[in-house]
Amino acid sequence: MRIAVVEDNESLAEAVAASLTDEGHGVDVIHDGGDAALFLGREKPDLVILDINLPGKSGLDVLTELRAAGSAVPVILLTARSETKDRVVGLDSGADDYLVKPFDIAELLARVRALLRRSANSDSLQMAVGDLVFDQSARRVFHEGQPLELPRREFALLELFANRLGQVVSKDQILDHLYGTGSDAEEAAAELYVHRLRKRITGCGLTIRTFRGLGYCMEEQR
Predict the structure, then answer these.
(1) 3-state secondary structure the chain
(2) Which residues in the chain show pLDDT less than 50?
(3) Most buried of the four, 20, 66, 122, 153, by CB within 10 Å?
(4) 10 Å Cβ neighbour count for 192?
(5) How far is CA 217 from CA 12, 141, 164, 169, 195, in A?
C-alpha cells in the first residue's frame, strides 16, 4: 500500500516512514500542511497519517479539504493535544482514528493495519486477476488455491499492476509506489522488479508488456 506521512517533526516522520517501509509499504513524507494539501489533491494514497500542528496549513484544514473533495481515504490524526474536545473536533472533521503523542510505533502500525483491513473489507475482499486470486485484506495472493510467495516489493508491484490492469504504469509511478515520492531510487530498480515479477507470474494467466518510453502494462492472457 502507499501511505502518506504528514509530520513536521522530521525525525519522527522518518522513524514512522522507516517502520512502514519495513512492512512493505511505499511511503511519501511531507512536512508542510500546504504541501500536503497539494499532494493529496493530485495523488491517491491508500492511507494518510496526518499531524494536526503543521506549518503552512493545519492538519484539520487539510483533512476538511480532503473530505470536501469527496476523498474517503483513511486518515489517522497525530497530535500532542490530549483533551477530549480536540479528539472530538478531529473525528468530526473526518478522521478515522486518533493517536496522541508520544505514542509507540508498534501501536501506530497496528492501527494502520486495522484501517487498511477495514478499507479493503469495505470494497472487496478478493480480486481475480488472470489465474491469481488477490486478497488485499490478508495481503496474500493465491494461484490454483496455493499461496504464491512474493518478497514484499514484488508483492507491492503486483498490487499496483492488479489495481491498474490494462493500464500503462510508468517507471516513476512504480518507484513512487515502492519507495515513496522523492526517493533516490533509479529507474533500473523498477526494471529489476518488473523482471523478477514477470518470472514469478509465469503460468498465471498474466503478462507484463513493455511500452518503450512509457512504462509497463499488465494484461490477462486470452
Answers:
(1) CEEEEECCCHHHHHHHHHHHHHCCCEEEEECCHHHHHHHHHHCCCCEEEEECCCCCCCHHHHHHHHHHCCCCCCEEEEECCCCHHHHHHHHHCCCCEEEECCCCHHHHHHHHHHHHHHHHHHHCCEEEECCEEEECCCCEEEECCEECCCCHHHHHHHHHHHHCCCCEECHHHHHHHHHCCCCCCCHHHHHHHHHHHHHHCCCCCEEEEEECCCEEEEEECC
(2) none
(3) 20
(4) 12
(5) 36, 19, 8, 6, 13
The span from the CA of 92 to the CA of 138, in Å, is 29
Residue with cell 523482471: 195
Question: Which residues, listed in sequence order, are joined to residue 4 by a DSSP beta bridge?
Answer: 28, 48
- Do strands 132-135 and 126-129 pair parallel, antiparallel, or not at all (unpaired)? antiparallel
Residues 6+ apart with CB under 8 A from 128: 134
pTM above 0.90, yes or no: no
Burial class (CB in 10 A: 0-12, 13-18, 19+), 6: buried
Structure confidence at residue 83 (pLDDT): 66
pLDDT digit string, tens, across residues 43-71 = 888 899 999 999 999 999 999 999 888 88
Residue 90 grid coordinates = 478531529
